[in-house]
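Appendix C: a fully annotated inverse folding record. The material below is reproduced so that readers can follow the format used throughout the book. The structure is listed first as tokens, followed by the designed sequence.
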């Protein structure tokens, strides 16, 4: 793995003399109280400002403050004019623009593209506090306010839209958000390392347009710098011949096709497209000066197969240990993506999470509740990243697959902070986790293998033999945490990766007997091989083994506890019969989901490339490569959701229609083995047809029942 400068080792900027702010200021009055005449950096965010390390603006703001910079916050500004963006004056170095902890489109719209009625990251939970595509709107307004101030965009919305990406809400491929926002620089991934280097270099007088060598950043340039080796992405993973219009990656029609093993080629291009030369193999010593050219924006926008190919290359070049730079043509300029940032060390993670966070919302909000804060105020993050590689998830694309863990002592110090400082603490830590609860300090057994690996997942199709799955450090952390004075209970609310957990039965025992509040959520997501293979999720046998261990250890402790599995409807690779199988399994096991999650094609996800192209980018993409069944259209998506909520009378008409169409009318009736009744209660989804003298019941006698509280605590869609 490449080395990187310790982010805590920079010489502080001269403004460090002002000391630490109680809260990062949101007004000129607060700046005056701090003795500031200006801000060095202003962060514009789509979330309410909560000074807590679960909120991106707080982490980046406090990290920059520790570097000696004066940081102001503009939270959820009125975007209809530039005036609110000038409220704190002109920043000396740059505007940092983020949509917040969520992509603004995911935040505002459901998977069925309906407008959500609330926003957990806004005071009072009120919807409408941020614009659609917030990064673009905020960046443009900041530019209007101060035309000469550099604009740096980041956060998950910018990170996942850094190249040409399929946009589910408009059903088309959009340009890199860097161009639409007219930003000077895009920071992708967790941004502490990039933003520290950038701030110090700008403070030293460098021009932001000349800063092109920071890993984890993307920027615009006109041409390839001298001394770089350009590799055509289709040479690495050829998508095959195209129909007209001409393929910019095909040989000229008059020339014979180049053999697959050719060492180099000069390719004919449509008029205006420059010739790309590439080499077959790049020596290790040259990788630092190699860039992979992806198909252009125009090409991927016009051809879904090329889009899937570009998505596959992007994900193959995701390991910081071996990733090369990527470049993609947009019109008359290139969007250049440097390799991903070097993960933070344990020392750096401790330093980031031990900044002087107040752990409460800014006083500006008074007593108004911020729902997202209420959910996490008693939780503690112990790690970042995920090596699961689930194709529908954005964690790996944003945080990386290499786990970055904190030290046990640092975590314990934060728990003590929660105990001693957070209002309303009753002795219960609500979560000790991260993107995944049980990946703490898990890593490849060999740093050399890890740096060279190009697998998208360390646990699919099976747990890699090179992966250290020892849960002993996590078990030790749990035991030390619950032994702290004043701590009554430490719960685990983050999702448990159960295929990893069964590698360590001692961990399952520790979890079940000490850290579950009656219900534990886990995510099988599907049962059938079709969707599971497209999700990169383990088969149901791993779930069954975990369930067996969990129930055994719960019983040994004299506790009645339940697993709450949740599933995704309408994921690529899912057929109607797969959903029927899942509905029958749910009924057999007595599960009744109050809320269900339908697949939402988020930008840059591998499953989104499947959704858009109908191809499987987990394998080499060709014109004749594997086709993926895509449940598209509102009717099919609603049917798949209805299967998950088979018990809801409003869904029975559509389910009866589907069962008849599938030749499974035998599942319509009132017997225990049947899925939906033949009658329809008055006032529900269809004409009333209740059998005379027979009471209506939503669950038949003899079925195992999901406890009421477990149903009510069903996790919300992610």
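Designed amino acids, in order:
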């Amino acid at each position: 793995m490449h080395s990187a400068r310790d982010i805590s080792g920079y010489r502080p900027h001269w403004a460090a003399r002002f000391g630490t702010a109680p809260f990062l200021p949101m007004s000129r009055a607060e700046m005056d109280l701090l003795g500031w005449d200006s801000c060095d950096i202003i962060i514009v965010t789509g979330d309410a400002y909560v000074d807590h390390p679960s909120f991106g603006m707080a982490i980046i703001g406090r990290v920059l403050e520790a570097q000696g910079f004066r940081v102001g916050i503009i939270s959820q500004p009125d975007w209809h004019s530039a005036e609110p963006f000038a409220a704190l004056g002109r920043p000396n170095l740059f505007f940092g623009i983020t949509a917040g902890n969520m992509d603004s489109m995911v935040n505002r719209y459901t998977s069925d593209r309906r407008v959500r009625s609330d926003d957990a990251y806004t005071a009072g939970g009120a919807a409408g506090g941020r614009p659609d595509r917030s990064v673009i709107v905020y960046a443009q307004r900041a530019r209007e306010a101060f035309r000469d101030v550099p604009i740096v965009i980041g956060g998950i919305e910018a990170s996942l839209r850094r190249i040409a990406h399929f946009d589910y809400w408009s059903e088309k491929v959009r340009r890199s958000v860097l161009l639409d926002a007219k930003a000077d620089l895009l920071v992708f991934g967790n941004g502490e390392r990039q933003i520290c280097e950038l701030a110090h270099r700008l403070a030293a007088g460098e021009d932001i347009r000349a800063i092109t060598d920071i890993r984890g950043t993307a920027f615009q340039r006109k041409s390839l710098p001298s001394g770089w080796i350009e590799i055509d992405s289709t040479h690495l993973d050829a998508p095959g011949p195209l129909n007209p219009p001409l393929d910019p990656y095909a040989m000229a029609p008059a020339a014979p096709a180049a053999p697959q093993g050719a060492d180099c080629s000069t390719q004919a291009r449509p008029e205006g497209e420059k010739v790309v030369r590439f080499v077959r193999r790049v020596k290790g010593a040259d990788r630092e000066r190699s860039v992979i050219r992806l198909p252009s924006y125009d090409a991927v926008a016009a051809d879904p197969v090329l889009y899937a190919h570009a998505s596959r290359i992007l994900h193959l070049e995701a390991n910081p240990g071996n990733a090369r730079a990527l470049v993609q043509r947009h019109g008359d300029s290139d969007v250049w993506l440097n390799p991903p940032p070097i993960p933070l060390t344990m020392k750096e993670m401790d330093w980031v999470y031990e900044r002087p966070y107040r752990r409460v919302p800014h006083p500006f909000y008074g007593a108004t509740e911020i729902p997202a804060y209420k959910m996490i105020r008693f939780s503690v993050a112990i790690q970042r990243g995920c090596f699961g590689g689930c194709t529908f998830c954005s964690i790996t694309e944003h945080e990386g697959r290499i786990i970055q863990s904190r030290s046990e002592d640092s975590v314990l110090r934060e728990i003590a902070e929660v105990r001693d400082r957070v209002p309303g603490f009753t002795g219960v830590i609500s979560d000790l986790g991260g993107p995944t609860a049980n990946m703490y300090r898990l890593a490849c057994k060999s740093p050399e293998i890890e740096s060279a690996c190009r697998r998208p997942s360390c646990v699919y199709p099976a747990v890699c033999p090179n992966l250290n799955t020892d849960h002993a450090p996590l078990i030790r952390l749990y035991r030390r945490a619950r032994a702290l004075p004043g701590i009554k209970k430490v719960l685990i609310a983050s999702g448990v990766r159960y295929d990893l957990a069964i590698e360590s039965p001692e961990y399952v025992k520790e979890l079940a007997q000490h850290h579950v509040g009656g219900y534990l959520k886990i995510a099988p997501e599907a049962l059938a091989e079709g969707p599971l293979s497209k999700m990169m999720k383990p088969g149901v046998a791993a779930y069954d083994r975990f369930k067996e261990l969990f129930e055994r250890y719960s019983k040994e402790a004299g506790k009645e506890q339940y697993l709450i599995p949740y599933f995704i409807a309408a994921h690529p690779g899912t057929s109607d019969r797969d959903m029927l199988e899942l509905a029958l399994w749910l009924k057999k096991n007595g599960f009744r989901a109050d809320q269900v999650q339908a697949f939402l094609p988020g930008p840059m996800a591998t499953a989104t490339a499947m959704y858009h192209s109908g191809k499987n980018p987990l394998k080499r993409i060709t014109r004749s490569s594997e086709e993926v069944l895509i449940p598209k259209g509102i009717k099919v998506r609603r049917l798949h959701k209805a299967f998950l909520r088979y018990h809801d009378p409003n869904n029975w008409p559509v389910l009866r229609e589907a069962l008849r169409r599938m030749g499974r009318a035998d599942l319509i009736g009132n017997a225990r083995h049947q899925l939906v009744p033949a009658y329809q209660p008055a006032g529900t989804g269809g004409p009333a047809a209740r059998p005379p003298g027979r009471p209506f019941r939503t669950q038949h006698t003899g079925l195992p029942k999901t406890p009421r509280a477990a149903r009510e605590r069903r996790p919300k869609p992610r």
